[in-house]
Amino acid sequence: QAQLAESGGGLVQAGGALRLSCAASGNIFGISLMGWYRQSPGKQRELVATITRAGTTDYADSVKGRFTISADNRKNTIYLQMNNLTPEDTAVYYCLLTSLSRDDYWGQGTQVTVSS
Description:
Elements: E1 2-7, E2 10-13, E3 18-26, E4 31-39, E5 46-52, E6 57-59, E7 67-72, E8 77-82, E9 91-99, E10 104-106, E11 110-115
Parallel strand pairs: 2-11
Antiparallel strand pairs: 1-3, 3-8, 4-5, 4-9, 5-6, 7-8, 9-10, 9-11
């Protein structure tokens, strides 16, 4: 069973930046992919960015060019650098880990609020 600890959320003005971190621990029998999803009130949870163990990344169109996902495989930790934030980025951001056995694990979420 993997546990995910997220940090780095908060309140920022439009145009500002935040960096989220997600550290995985526990019985991790191989990581296939880690990533970030977000959910704002009244909306479904949506993909933000993912990164495979090999370093292949994928981004939602809405964040391309503004957000960067990276990983430190030795620490089983991923990061999400978010630049040029807009109020539309306001959401709870959730960390995801998909294991090699295709089990999904989710973090508890961290709130990101962007004021206009």
